[in-house]
Task: structure prediction
Amino acid sequence: MPSEVMTRLDPKSHAAAKGMSDLSIRNLFIVPTIVFLIVFNIFPLLYSLGYSFTDFRASTNAPANFVGLQNYRELLNDPFIWKNFSITAKYVLISVTGQVIVGFGLAMLLNRSIPAKGLITTLLLLPMMLSMAVVGLFWKLLYDPNFGIINYFLGLGKFEWLADPDMALYAIAIVDIWMWAPFVMLLSLAGLSAVPKHLYEAAEIDRAGSFYTFFRITLPLVAPILMIAIIFRTMEAFKTFDLAYVLSSQPNTELIAIRLYKMAFQEWQTGMSSAFAYIVLIMVVAITNIYVKYLNKVKAR
Amino acid sequence: MKKTMNGMLAGVALGALTAPAAWAEDLVIFWAEWDPANYLQELANEYEEETGISVTVETTPWADFQTKAFTEFNARGSAYDMIVGDSQWLGAASEGGHYVDLTEFFDANNLGEVMAPATVKYYAEYPGNSGTYWAVPAEGDAVGWSYRKDWFEDPAEMTAFKEKYGYDLAPPATWAQLTDIAEFFHRPDENRYGIAIYTDNSYDAMVMGVENAIFSYGADLGNFETYEVDGYVNSPKAVAALENYKKLYGYTPPGWAKTFFVENNQAITEGLVAMSMNYFAFFPALLNEATNPHAANTGFFANPAGPDGDQFAALGGQGISVVKYSENQEESMKFLEWFIKDETQKRWAELGGYTASAAVLESEEFRKATPYNEAFYQTMFKVKDFWAVPEFAELLTSANQRLYPFIIGDQGSAQETLDALAADWKETFKKYGRGQ
Result:
């Protein structure tokens, strides 16, 4: 019985005085959550799976016709969709790699006794506390070739960060790195401070170089927590919508989330976009699974 | 805990019960957030004074307008009684059963003749030539141009221009002249640029810009009755038009890759460009000293003619439709009856609205009222529009996907771009069983 493993209710407590049992308290907390999850997550998920096999359009009164796998076939044969996927993959790779390098680097710098460490850490965390849309809007101003301060400080003249088709995706990734590297830094810092000091002392006694110490002690011990940061950031980067949508409308920056939004809410191809959302879901689940497998392997070591 | 829950539930229930009741008396018109919506609110306030029925004009930013309106339609919501919908929505909204059929109202009031023919054709009728009407033309609009009079009238510039191109510097009459002038004034070293055009590839911004070139070059997007596109949108004339548009992109200010009406007005107010494309609806702001330091030096001209003398402009503007799910349809019809009266239309124009009423448009009074009204009057009799079929948004997506990489990304040729677009459109029409 599950109730047996639970901690017994204190007979003197307020709840017990009202005649509530452990079980009813458990239900009180869990049932609303489960109902919420079913109504707002599971039900739409299954319902849209049904739609993904139809030609349903929410903007018309026409009944939905069953079309089998046609939506999936059309999507997977559409070169523009493949382009959206490769753009997204490129974006995830640049942005997550950048965040890990910058975030971990910052964590290494902060993982020593320096004056005003708390203040510096707090200031570094500010970007990730801002709203994505706001960040997008002010970076658009910073990048502006006519009056933006980035070109002014870097002396780049009229360099077109967002209008240059080859540069735009990198420009968006830079903003994402600026915003989310602190998140990686925070987790890495937690990992770094958990590395036992005696290992470093032992390494020093053995006259191990700093390079060797980093790759043999620091990195392996921080790896599990770094992997968690990478999983979170990959999933988030894969779903990026607001930042890219606000900053640029280049075809070279049309991430899958943007294409999906346009298909669902501008073109009202409800059936087709449900199928698209499922393809994206399967991909995210698959990628996350690979990471989780790797994470378990790292932990086992 | 229980008490709080009950309290919360009661609060929610109370809110749900009272919210619609409080608004039952009012009429709500939904439109995009821009100056004309404010003018309409002023007009509606006068209606309230006369009848005691208040009318609220609710607005949302342009970028969300289509999404928000159709989300409400799809949910069969009664939040809006009337909607000032885009011309392209007619197919989707009428076939979707979201608009009330206004044919009877149209015929009874002889609106086919009261309103300018182009506005009836593009803002009200669907399918084309069917005699079925879904909206009352409200805000006439089309693309025109603003320019810097002081730059054009500078004697030194005029001499230099004549020397280089062999004709006088004046507001362009043809697309060739437009391109010459853009090239002439394009001086990045002086922080001066030739021209501002639409390049935003979300929704219809850039497509409307390219349409100005395509239509004036004498080409069409396709046959609106048979849905044939091959040989229309990729005809030699359309190819030449697209090449010209791309050439113009070369004379735009730096970073001009996601621009629509806001940026194009800014190009003038910031003193960046010689000429700027924009909808007439945004021109009042350019004459306002408070918003445009160059107001006194800003002039206007209609979209120039193409090489064969064809002259058309891309249509903007909207008609008012009654929403099928409104609980105040009868009151809404009364409002429309008031709205179409000659004196209301005249007042609408005075407030800043672009009336579609033929009589008001043709009056000397209207044409002389502002520096751009004459250009507007000329334009409204030679406008063309995008497809109004229910799947117009898919057609726009293909157009954006094909045109943008060519114009901004410098990929492929104009012919390849338009051939690919024709193939995409053909595929879409085939999917929905149109023509073929």
User: Anything to note?
Assistant: Residues 211 and 217 of chain A are 10 Å apart (CA to CA).
